[in-house]
Fold this protein.
Amino acid sequence: MDERVLKAAVRATDEGLARVVVIGDIEEIKKFNIEGSERIEVINPNTYPDTENMVNALYILRKDKGLTYDEATNLLHNDYMYFACMLVKLGKADGVVSGACHPTSDTFRPALQIIKAKQGVDLVSAFFLMCVPNCDYGLNGTFIFADSGLVQNPTDIELASIAKESADSFKLLTKADPWVAFISYSTKGSAKHADVDKVIRAVKYAKEKYPDYNMDGELQVDAAIVPDVARSKAPGSLVAGRAVANGPIIDFGYIELKVFKKDFDIFDMAEQKTFKHYVVGIFFRRGEEKFFPTAFIYFGRQFAQYGQFYPQQIRTGN
């Protein structure tokens, strides 16, 4: 248990953002002595009356993949992420918040195995949401970088899917129309390589399959978000210089993230906040919602500002 989770749970509850259920041991939670934590509902998998039914459901769900009943029992009694995902799967919760004290892979794996992909979504991917104060680029300093944590070396078709899902994510979170740039080390043919060709094919495919979306590429990062650079490098692009979402390979996405986390004069991003990680395409019972937040966001009103994340629903945290 991480005390940040408890503080965030209390704050989310007090601000009316969600009805939070924390997975853990109530006696261990009391040791943190967090003011207001007594108002948070706590579920202990070892004493929860429905745990055995959940074990049986997990076994049925995963037995064809080789999971034994004993393994299912061990997972739900000892791995809070598996337990939380089963709460969502069985309709006892609407979402899961995790990642404060779990590696990314341990957070993603149960979600992909249990909750699985939303119907109609071609590919489950991940993105970082960046919010930069006093910034004129993007949407007043708000950007999405994708895929930055899940899909390794996507194909051109997968790149197009990632871009589309990222655009949908941006619009849901900010209520603004997204401009999506396919990032490369090349801008409009300035370099020749198979990797560049893949991005070009992805852009072509995306424009054909999603004609109502504002997408373009291939673009270097500066051409994608800096208007002066865009006018020089990609004068005919409607996206260049105004992009808010990027669809590169995972290496580029993560590199972009790290660059944005530094204080460069061109971006003036010393005070930026990273709202990471979001997995796009995971199924939820409420059909219009597609996010699986993997790190508890505890910036209070800023959290509420971006899309009013499911305000009257249960979230489970671990």
Observations:
- Residues 262-277, 283-318 have pLDDT under 50 and may be disordered.
- Residues 156-174 form the longest helix (19 residues).
